[in-house]
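Sharing a chain and its predicted structure for anyone who wants a worked example. Both blocks are below, sequence first, tokens second.
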Amino acid sequence: MRPGKPPPKRNYCKRTGLALLDGRTPEGRLAKRLREGFTGQIGSPNPVETALIERAVMLSLQIARFDKAAAENGGKFEKHQSDVYLAWSNTLVRTLAQLGLAPRTSKAKRQAGYDHSVFLDRFVSAPADADAAA
């Protein structure tokens, strides 16, 4: 540091689109982890993928804010809030699908050719079988 000159300002913020996130806040740290996770799954993203990753990060942050509000409010949403939450959740799923980030299925499910209807039939019909036996 030179005498008479103020120390350089540290930049804790990351500009994502129009949003300016402070990396020291919980939201900023979550955004960083999400960004690193999405980028790690893709590898070296091109500019379009980078824009989609930023969109997915911002959607994830908004959904996390809704989750926090719901937890503080006993899990209750107003109708409009529920509609917005579902729209953002669906948009996030579509964005991640465009990035090629699909949920992993377990190895056992893949090997067994897992069918959800078999699972549902087994457990939905179980109480009826128990009533018939009684």
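Comments welcome. The two ends are 85 Å apart (CA to CA).
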